[in-house]
């Protein structure tokens, strides 16, 4: 097989980062990204892009930690380079505060982020409704910049990108040798995976450049994440809600909750409301599969279901998926050389 | 009771406000006037980045450490007030970097969350092997000074744009107390060989992806002669120049290059930052702050002067503690005047 043709379905964070990893691990492959949406219209563009992991109930903690570590290390190097501003990657410090002391005081990722420690009493005074907190420094990926930077890196490798709605993975079997499914929430319709469900999130993006630290309530519902040009205020976690329309009542509720954590936000300007559906699953599906119809086979590598934790593990899962693509390539080359005999 | 304040930088304006807040209700006749040849945005305080951070060592000057603490605590109390944004007041975290271990500073328990840097954090800063992380405050002069001016104007304080050439110029005509907050130019009113310029130069850039202050220290070259990066609410200030005895406020191309090269080496992410301005100013440096009373003149021309100058590169850091100390000195003056007016009656 001369140059295996790989199609990556989806151009959000997972699609683009996986495509890039495939070009890195399988330089002989030609990579094409196919997606209905590109930045700034993907789910990833709505997210704040904070590297604070979400815990998947059915993925091994060891694996989640490995994925997070790989992602953190990769982005840490970019943040400390001349590319940082173009890639939208920057360090940020802040606090995660709890109204009551959490069962698990040391999350699995505490030794991967920087300077993790409990908050002092003096620091907690800023949060009179909260009794316990953790201070640390982590990374943030601003979108669209990060996605656009990934697109630029991809184009430099010769990879192509097309706007195209893929209704069925099988429709790609005649044009491509391997399909990588990074369709996020779209995998629900594409595959009929009932284990994949939306968790609706509404956020506000506001102009408040004096806010330099992140603040997150440990319940995951209220957070303030300062980005390069705006601060993301959140949020909601509405299971099985498919609505992409902003809800004005929710907007006010988010704003009020965030102002109670950071009163200076009252002076925030230019409020923009966005909605995204977190493509949630009990475990991230990073897996090989072979589709076959009438004797024709199509190797597929799945990489979807990252829910609330996409940014935190994206590079780790992209590398894992690229490794699986490598296995598919070997299998194809193995069977084509067997065919020669 | 007429009070003339000379100087409209952070020291002059805050001292005026502190005195007015404390005494106007006790003293309905209190009249304050501020005289200055430069007002915001043209004062030394406007050029400073606005980071609350004292020098590394207080040289055993506990009084100054206390004034620093009073200022920090005062600002922290205002952090959640609706005025904070207008004051240019906000929290900021960041790094102090060294090439060798150093003792903890006098202010380790004043700031929030002070700790040493971990080895992984130090990987960010090649060439530096030791450091601190803490959360402190920013108080941006270009917001704080107009805010102080508004508060004073609301209180009926008058402002006069003039260069005062002598204390007598303002102390005649019924002025009882003069507050000397003239910063670098105090020597023009009364020679003070201990007051020397600590020339600084800064480059202002657009780099909103930088969320931490980073201050490096070279113990051999002295304070502020090593690169620093301080992100403000709109601009990021790059600096690292301290030239003792240099009175020039011209922009030096050599200093510009030195700041730019050293800051980009420190923080490669700055390489793409757009330069939007440059400024040079003189830190009013003195071995210790001059905060004391002096009686000048005789008879009709007698005036009580409260000196409050010589805050070097830590004016914003120490300003409120000094303002309150100046207010206490003012209180002493009032007390003395009342005793003179109403001497204690002998008991029969």
UniProtKB/TrEMBL annotation, chain A:
Q: Name one GO biological process term.
A: L-aspartate catabolic process
Domain FAD dependent oxidoreductase: start-end pairs? 5-324
> Which residues constitute the signal peptide according to the record?
1-19
Key word Glycosyltransferase present: no
Entry's transmembrane regions: none
Q: Which Pfam families match?
A: DAO (PF01266)
Q: What is this protein called?
A: D-aspartate oxidase
TrEMBL record, chain B:
Question: Per its UniProt entry, which superkingdom is the organism in?
Answer: Eukaryota
Identify the residues that bind D-dopa: 53, 217
Q: Could you tell me which Gene3D superfamilies the record lists for this protein?
A: D-Amino Acid Oxidase, subunit A, domain 2, NAD(P)-binding Rossmann-like Domain
Question: EC number(s) per UniProt?
Answer: 1.4.3.3
Q: What family, per the record?
A: Belongs to the DAMOX/DASOX family.
Domain FAD dependent oxidoreductase: residue ranges? 2-329
Per its record, how is this protein called by name?
A: D-amino-acid oxidase
The gene name on file is Dao
Q: Residues that bind FAD, according to the entry?
A: 44-45, 49-51, 164, 182, 312-317
Where is D-serine annotated to bind? 228, 283, 313
One GO term describing the cellular component: extracellular region
Q: What enzyme category does the UniProt record give?
A: oxidoreductase
Indicate where this protein is primarily found: cytoplasm
Compartmental location: Cytoplasm, Cytosol; Peroxisome matrix; Presynaptic active zone; Secreted
What are the record keywords, sorted?
Answer: Cell projection, Cytoplasm, FAD, Flavoprotein, Oxidoreductase, Peroxisome, Phosphoprotein, S-nitrosylation, Secreted, Synapse
GO biological-process terms attached to the record? D-alanine catabolic process; D-serine catabolic process; L-proline catabolic process
Which GO MF terms does the UniProt record name?
A: D-amino-acid oxidase activity; FAD binding
Name any cofactors this protein relies on: FAD
What Pfam families does the record tag this protein with? DAO
Q: What reaction gets catalysed by this protein?
A: D-methionine + O2 + H2O = 4-methylsulfanyl-2-oxobutanoate + H2O2 + NH4(+); D-cysteine + O2 + H2O = 2-oxo-3-sulfanylpropanoate + H2O2 + NH4(+); D-serine + O2 + H2O = 3-hydroxypyruvate + H2O2 + NH4(+); D-alanine + O2 + H2O = pyruvate + H2O2 + NH4(+)
């Amino acid at each position: 097989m001369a140059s295996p043709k790989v199609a990556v379905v989806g151009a959000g964070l997972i699609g683009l980062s996986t495509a890039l990893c495939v070009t890195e691990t399988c330089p002989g492959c030609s990579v094409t990204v196919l997606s209905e949406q590109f930045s700034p219209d993907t789910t990833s563009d709505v997210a704040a892009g904070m590297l604070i992991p979400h815990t998947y109930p059915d993925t091994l903690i060891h694996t989640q930690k490995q994925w997070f570590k790989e992602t953190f290390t990769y982005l840490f190097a970019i943040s400390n380079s001349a590319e940082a501003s173009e890639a939208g990657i920057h360090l940020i410090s802040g606090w995660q505060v709890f109204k009551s002391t959490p069962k698990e005081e040391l999350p699995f990722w505490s030794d991967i982020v920087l300077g993790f420690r409990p908050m002092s009493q003096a620091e907690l005074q800023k949060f009179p409704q909260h009794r316990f907190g953790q201070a640390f420094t982590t990374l943030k990926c601003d979108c669209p910049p990060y996605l656009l930077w990934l697109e630029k890196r991809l184009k430099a490798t010769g990879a192509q990108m097309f706007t195209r709605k893929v209704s069925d993975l099988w429709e790609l079997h005649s044009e491509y040798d391997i399909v990588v499914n990074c369709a996020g929430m779209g995998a629900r319709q594409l595959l009929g995976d009932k284990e994949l469900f939306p968790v609706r999130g509404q956020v506000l993006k506001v102009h408040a450049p004096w806010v330099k630290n992140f603040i997150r309530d440990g319940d995951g519902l209220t957070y303030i994440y300062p980005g390069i040009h705006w601060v993301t205020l959140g949020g909601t976690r509405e299971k099985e809600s498919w609505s992409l329309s902003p809800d004005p009542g929710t907007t006010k509720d988010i704003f009020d909750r965030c102002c109670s954590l950071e009163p200076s936000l009252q002076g925030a300007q230019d409020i923009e409301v966005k909605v995204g559906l977190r493509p949630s699953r009990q475990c991230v599906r990073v897996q090989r599969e072979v589709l076959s119809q009438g004797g024709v086979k199509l190797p597929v590598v799945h990489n979807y279901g990252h829910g609330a934790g996409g940014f935190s593990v994206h590079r780790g899962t992209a590398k894992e998926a690229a490794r699986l693509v490598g296995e598919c390539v070997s299998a194809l080359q193995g069977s084509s050389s067997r065919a020669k005999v | 009771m007429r009070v003339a304040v000379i100087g409209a930088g952070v020291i002059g304006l805050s001292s005026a406000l502190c005195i007015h807040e404390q005494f106007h209700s006790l003293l309905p006749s209190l009249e304050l006037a501020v005289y200055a040849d430069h007002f915001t945005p043209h004062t030394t305080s406007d050029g400073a980045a606005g980071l609350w951070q004292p020098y590394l060592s207080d040289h055993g000057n506990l009084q100054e450490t206390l004034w620093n603490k009073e200022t920090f605590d005062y600002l922290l109390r205002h952090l959640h007030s609706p005025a904070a944004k207008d004051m240019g007041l906000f929290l900021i975290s960041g790094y102090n970097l060294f090439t060798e271990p150093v003792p903890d500073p006098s202010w380790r328990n004043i700031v929030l969350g002070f700790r040493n840097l971990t080895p992984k954090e130090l990987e960010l800063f090649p060439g530096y092997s030791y450091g601190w992380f803490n959360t402190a405050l920013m108080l941006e002069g270009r917001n704080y000074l107009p805010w102080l001016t508004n508060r004073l104007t609301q209180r009926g304080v008058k402002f006069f744009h003039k260069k005062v050439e002598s204390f007598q110029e303002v102390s005649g005509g019924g002025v009882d107390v003069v507050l000397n907050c003239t910063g670098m130019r105090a020597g023009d009113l009364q020679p003070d060989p201990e007051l020397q310029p600590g020339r600084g130069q800064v480059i202002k850039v657009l780099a909103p992806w930088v969320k931490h202050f980073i201050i490096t220290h070279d113990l051999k070259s002295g304070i502020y002669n090593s690169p620093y990066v301080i992100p403000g609410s709109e601009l990021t200030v790059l600096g690292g120049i301290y030239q003792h005895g240099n009175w020039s406020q011209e922009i030096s191309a050599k200093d510009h290059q030195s700041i730019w090269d050293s800051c980009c080496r420190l923080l490669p992410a700055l390489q793409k930052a757009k330069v939007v301005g440059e400024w040079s100013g003189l830190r009013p440096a003195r071995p210790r702050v001059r905060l004391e009373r002096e009686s000048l003149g005789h008879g009709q021309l007698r005036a009580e002067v409260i000196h409050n100058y010589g805050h070097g590169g830590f004016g914003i850091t120490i300003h409120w503690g000094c303002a309150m100390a100046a207010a206490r000195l003012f209180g002493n003056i009032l007390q003395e005047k009342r005793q003179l007016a109403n001497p204690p009656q002998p008991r029969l």
